[in-house]
Amino acid sequence: MSQEKCLGCQEVTEEDLLLQLDGILDDYVGKPGGLIPALQIAQKLFGYLPKSAIKLISKKLSIAYSEVTGVISFYSFFSTVPRGKYMVRVCLGTACYVRGGKEVLSSLQKELEIGVGGTTGDGLFSLDIGRCFGACGLAPVLMVNDDIHQRVKAEKVKELIEFYRDLELTKIKEKAG
Amino acid sequence: MISLTINNLKIEVPEGTTLLEAAKKIGVNIPTLCNFEGREAIGACRVCVVEVEGARTLVASCATPVSEGMKVYTNSKRVRDARKTVVELLLSEHNGECKTCDRNNDCELQSLAYQMGIEEIGLIGETARQHIDKTTPALIRDNGKCIKCRRCVAACNEIQSVGALFPQGRGFDSVIGPAFMLDLDTVACVQCGQCVAVCPVGAITERSHIDDVWKALDDPNKLVVVQTAPAIRAALGECFGYEPGTLVTGKMVTALRQLGFDKVFDTNFAADLTIIEEGTELLVRLKEKIVEGKKVALPQFTSCSPGWINFTEYFYPEYLDNLSSCKSPQQMFGALAKSYYAEMMCKDIDEIVVVSIMPCTAKKYECQRDEMNSSGIQDVDYVLTTRELGKMIKQAGIDFKSLPDSKMDSPLGLSSGAADIFANTGGVMEAAIRTVYEIVTGRELPTENLHIDAIMGLDGVKRASLKIEGTLPEWSFLEGVELKAGVAHGLGNSRKIFQAIENGEEFHFIEVMTCPGGCIGGGGQPRHTDDSVRLKRIAAIYAEDEGKQLRKSHENPDIQRLYERFLGKPLSETSHHLLHTHYHQKPVC
Ligand code: SF4
Ligand code: SF4
Ligand code: SF4
Ligand code: FES
Q1: Which protein residue has the closest C-alpha to ligand 3 atom 8?
Q2: What are the Cα distances from residue B551, in Å, to B3, B289, B435, B444?
Q3: Which domain range does residue B21 map to?
Q4: Nearest by CB to A66, which of B165, B169, B170?
Q5: Which pTM was predicted?
Q6: Do B255 and B350 fall within a single domain?
Q7: What is the ipTM of this complex?
């Protein structure tokens, strides 16, 4: 009998996840249209799409590696770099753009020391550009995960980021009891 | 049948014909860019638009089937204006300089611009970002010139089933290329150059060796010998305006001499040698299996086509033992030129430069493989494609059409008709059977004209079986055996053969050529190659074969002399050292 491993209380390694993915992919082998669901599953499992997972998918589904990455790059939903715990999206729609969105973005880049599409070294924040969030009247707008922040000023960005950093610290402290 | 009119001319065509095809039938040419034989139309470029009476908008003729009573106009003002705009748009984002481009004078976009009478590009847009990828031995890719027609994607994926090139990303920033927009050396690419052959512009080209060859020719201390692959003589003429399928063997030899090559030899000579070595290898494998009951890898696969070798190393490593250990004719030639011939001429091997003229880009890769240094240094120094040779002849100011014929030099220049047919699909197999059958039975292959009809022509996968009867005593173990041959061309078709083997079908010998049609349709041949061109070149090759007295490899007197004086016998130690090789698995990504 194969030994069921409890993954709840220990660090899950990439190998464990690959093994898991390998098992799940069995259901998609030889099925047309299986690529997108397979990529979604892998992204959910890893939080992003590491090369190892892409290679595994390419091999198991017999779809060329370049074709798989072509599909991945077509959908902004997929990410090939690890995503931070907090996804920061700055709207650069026309209204936000003219009302300082661009400055907000550059001060975020400075504060987080990452570029668009990047993730901070501590894995807390990822930065991306968003399309219109439908709140043009309150531009410029940015989103942190599901929270919308309106009329953001470039000078206030530091404060905002500090808020999430503190939030995270509190959570860790709570966990430690 | 459907009847319609095109430019008021009546025409009847079968249902399902596209407007583009119908127009071609009555001599009306419609320009195209993204259209590609063998792939369903994607209707992306819109250069082929035509006007259909009653339709609101112009339609893409490559993607529109005919329908009853249609009235089509291919040259109205509306059509001309629309096409002109499309080409102007393409030019406005095109990042290339015709004057210095490899495709200058041989570019579909450039000639469309000329045809449309575009004298100025009114639209100014952002140009494509240039990134030049020089990471592989055979190919150069330049994204700035890519018009995203995706012909290369169809060639690489649908025809070759390699899948190195795909659209990456979306919108204006998308590129056609390997995974993650990285360079070609980060993915499995077999270097076949089918992408190069179909690209309408200068976005993918072969890595040129022209300058290196001029340098060697200009060096008085070098003896520069050239070998020409079987497929060149049936295609080189196209570079000079001859019809496809015009044989120019004699003019080609004269041109090579005028370019300054010291000796003009023939890869065909080495093709004859390949038949002796590879045929013997097959017989040994069969004997080991049938008589000695050994576990040997059968069927044996041909190994002349470096793209196919790459393909097996990447995708079917479990079959590496099935590949014949014979080097390709190009590499056999190189090894002999820098051993047998060098000794004969009392030359040091580094005084000899070996140049190959090949229909193939993968040969540029092959000559740089680690195993291809049997003489002590790189056996083949430079490889020119047919197109590159055409360019050099023009650079030298040689009037090709007015050249007299001349003959190849000895002792590496004489070849049989069996060697000629190495150029096309089915040819290596036929050449091998001509010799193997005669070795085993002592009689000539009893087929009409020495041909094996079942493996001729352009079907993707072909099969033939031949009952062996009346064997000589030494080969009595083959008495009554049905020799089963399989032939595939275009790597996608080779997968079908692998599938058949895995389904339990029995084969003894399998020929695979990387490119559709075989070498005559190689990635280094004059553009543009479609099936009609392939068939013409193949017909020329068979004519060359049939025109010779000498039709069988083992009857080539210079090959017999080579064995007497130098190699000893087939599969001898010297043969193994110089003419055979080994393969290794490669990671796919
Ligand atoms: S690809 Fe064609 S149009 Fe572009 S620079 Fe080269 S020759 Fe000119
Ligand atoms: S050389 Fe062949 S395998 Fe490589 S990208 Fe071009 S078509 Fe694909
Ligand atoms: S590289 Fe050439 S064939 Fe491929 S999409 Fe670009 S222009 Fe078309
Ligand atoms: S050739 Fe018809 S749309 Fe490109």
Answers
A1: B149
A2: 49, 30, 10, 11
A3: 2-75
A4: B165
A5: 0.87
A6: yes
A7: 0.73
